[in-house]
Automatic annotation (TrEMBL):
Its main location: endoplasmic reticulum. This is Signal peptidase complex subunit 1. The keyword Membrane applies. Belongs to the SPCS1 family. The chain crosses the membrane at residues 12-31, 38-59. The lineage of its organism: Eukaryota, Viridiplantae, Streptophyta, Embryophyta, Tracheophyta. It comes from Salix udensis. One of its GO terms (biological process) is signal peptide processing. It is a multi-pass membrane protein.
Amino acid sequence: MDWQGQKKAELWMQILLLVFSVGAFAIGYIIGSFRMMMLIYAGGVVFTTLVTVPNWPFFNRHPLKWLDPSEAEKHPKPQKAVVSKDKKKSSKK
């Protein structure tokens, strides 16, 4: 899954969970059944999981282009800077 696909999956997850939670609450309130509300919401969570978790092809429309190993060897990794510990201490008078 590419970066745009992750963003799309996150957006879909939020929208679907919001729709199912509002819909479950409304239906549960109208028919007066807490059990039905929880079943509808649980079904929405399962549906949302099936839509957003697998790596579906429409989440991978912008694949990343990695460097070839030979090209990566031409550009060495940056080295960490060495910090000296010879700092002057301020003395109290």
